[in-house]
Task: structure prediction
Amino acid sequence: MNQSRGNLQINWGLITKVILEGKQRQELGELPFTYYYQKSGSLIGSFFCGDEEGEFILFFNLNYPDSAVILQLIAQHCQVLKEEILVYPLDSQGIELYSTVTPEKYIILDL
Result:
């Protein structure tokens, strides 16, 4: 399989653990909760675990230079959750606005 260099450096096992932890938080009622994904200080996206009707939302940085990572991130979330999830792209303005909102419960993961 031909993968980009950045894609090879992502810890996909960690992503799987995060997704399963989000599912567990849902089952235990420990929501809402947000996981931020970044690489070398650059935001890749975030995984929001909502408290209404078990919603999971994946936000991604539209300007992140490695689109293969974004596509794999979306696929990994759907595969592990065994369901479709809402996916929203954020452009530069969206990222600026998004970064000003700090949720009460979150973890920043440096991939």
Observations:
- Residues 36 and 46 are 4 Å apart (CA to CA).
- Confidence is low (pLDDT under 50) at residues 1-8.
- The radius of gyration is 13 Å.
- The first strand starts at residue 33 and ends at 39.
